[in-house]
Amino acid sequence: MKAKIALIVSLLGIAAAGVMAATHETRQPVKQEAAAKQEAVAMQQAATKQESATKQESATHQHDEASEHAAGQSLTVTGEVLDLACYMAHEGKGEKHKSCAQACINGGAPIGVLTADGDVYLLVEDHEAKKPYENLKGKAAEQVKVTGTLQQRGGLRAIVVASVQ
Question: Which option is the CATH number for 64-164: 2.40.50, 3.30.420, 3.30.2010, 3.30.450?
Answer without folding.
Answer: 2.40.50
